[in-house]
């Protein structure tokens, strides 16, 4: 439970098997109307008007988890995410609106681009975790070593040196397997930290994940050279 004492406008947050975000679970009662027929928009977020079937403009600041209809959790169902992505793009793709008004074409392009961004952000654990921290008001600056101690950085240096000196695909694959195991371990720890609301711990673990994800990409590049 959120340790802050509840006040009149405070929402209690209970951590069970998934994180709760006030950003993604807004209790706002603001009602939107269709730009075309002025009828109320009932879906959240609204992609189309249920009355006149016209595409709607993106709702500014909508949480990616809401857009993709996913539980707000670090270990989300990526299969469900992919299905939702395909479903939305089939209906929102700009090609479907080539004969529509200029405004509808613009809105379909904006919605389609937003869906792409939401999907790509939530698909991979690292970008998903960083996004979840941003929703909670935390940000990891690119290129910083915040949260990475000297022992950890020395370990990474040794891994990178071993990768540089790998002369066979077998050697590179061994480093790749070890890195995947480390990323899987970090995923479990990050999920546990976010579920408990331990954001600083999650941030430190995500910094480590950034480094290991970088090594994973280097392994792929190294293997491509052997082909």
Automatic annotation (TrEMBL):
Subcellular localization, per the record? Answer: Cytoplasm; Mitochondrion
One example of the protein's molecular function in GO is:
metal ion binding
Q: In which pathway does it act?
A: Cofactor biosynthesis; iron-sulfur cluster biosynthesis
Q: What does this protein do?
A: Acts as a co-chaperone in iron-sulfur cluster assembly in the cytoplasm. Also mediates complex formation between components of the cytosolic iron-sulfur biogenesis pathway and the CIA targeting complex composed of CIAO1, DIPK1B/FAM69B and MMS19 by binding directly to the scaffold protein ISCU and to CIAO1. This facilitates iron-sulfur cluster insertion into a number of cytoplasmic and nuclear proteins including POLD1, ELP3, DPYD and PPAT. Acts as a co-chaperone in iron-sulfur cluster assembly in mitochondria. Required for incorporation of iron-sulfur clusters into SDHB, the iron-sulfur protein subunit of succinate dehydrogenase that is involved in complex II of the mitochondrial electron transport chain. Recruited to SDHB by interaction with SDHAF1 which first binds SDHB and then recruits the iron-sulfur transfer complex formed by HSC20, HSPA9 and ISCU through direct binding to HSC20. Plays an essential role in hematopoiesis.
Q: Could you tell me which InterPro entries the record lists for this protein?
A: DnaJ_domain, HscB, HscB_C_sf, HscB_oligo_C, J_dom_sf
Name the Gene Ontology biological process terms: [2Fe-2S] cluster assembly; protein complex oligomerization
Q: Which Pfam families match?
A: HSCB_C
**What does the organism's lineage look like at the top?**
Eukaryota, Metazoa, Chordata, Craniata, Vertebrata
Provenance organism: Channa argus
In the UniProt record, does the keyword NAD occur?
Answer: no
Q: Determine the domain of life of the protein's source.
A: Eukaryota
Residue ranges annotated for the J domain, each copy included: 62-127
Q: Name one GO cellular component term.
A: mitochondrion
Keyword Ribonucleoprotein (UniProt):
no
User: Which protein are we looking at?
Assistant: Iron-sulfur cluster co-chaperone protein HscB
State the SMART domains in the record: DnaJ (SM00271)
Family per UniProt? Belongs to the HscB family.
- Assembly and binders: Homodimer. Interacts with ISCU (cytoplasmic form); this interaction stabilizes the (Fe-S) clusters on ISCU. Interacts with the CIA complex member CIAO1 (via LYR motif). Interacts with ISCU and HSPA9 to form an iron-sulfur transfer complex. Interacts with SDHAF1 (via the first LYR motif); the interaction recruits the iron-sulfur transfer complex composed of HSC20, HSPA9 and ISCU and mediates the incorporation of iron-sulfur clusters into SDHB which also interacts with HSC20. Interacts with the cytoplasmic form of ISCU and with CIA complex member CIAO1 (via LYR motif).
Assigned keywords, A-Z: Chaperone, Cytoplasm, Metal-binding, Mitochondrion
């Amino acid at each position: 439970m959120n340790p802050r004492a509840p006040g009149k406008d405070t929402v209690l947050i209970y951590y069970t098997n998934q994180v709760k975000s006030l950003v993604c679970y807004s209790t706002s009662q603001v009602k939107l109307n269709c730009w075309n027929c002025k009828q109320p928009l009932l879906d959240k977020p609204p992609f189309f008007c249920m009355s006149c079937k016209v595409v709607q403009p993106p709702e500014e600041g909508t949480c990616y988890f809401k857009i993709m209809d996913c539980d707000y959790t670090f270990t989300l169902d990526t299969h469900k995410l992919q299905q939702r992505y395909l479903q939305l793009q089939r209906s929102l793709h700009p090609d479907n609106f080539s004969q529509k008004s200029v405004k509808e074409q613009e809105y379909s392009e904006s919605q389609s681009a937003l869906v792409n961004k939401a999907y790509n952000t939530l698909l991979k654990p690292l970008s998903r975790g960083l996004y979840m921290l941003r929703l909670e008001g935390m940000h990891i600056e690119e290129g910083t070593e915040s949260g990475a101690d000297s022992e950890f950085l020395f370990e990474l240096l040794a891994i990178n040196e071993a990768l540089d000196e790998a002369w066979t695909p077998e050697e590179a694959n061994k480093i790749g397997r070890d890195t995947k195991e480390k990323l899987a371990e970090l995923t479990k720890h990050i999920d546990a930290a976010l579920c408990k609301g331990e954001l600083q711990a999650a941030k430190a673990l995500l910094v480590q994940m950034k480094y290991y994800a970088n090594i994973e990409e280097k392994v792929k590049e190294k293997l491509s050279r052997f082909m």
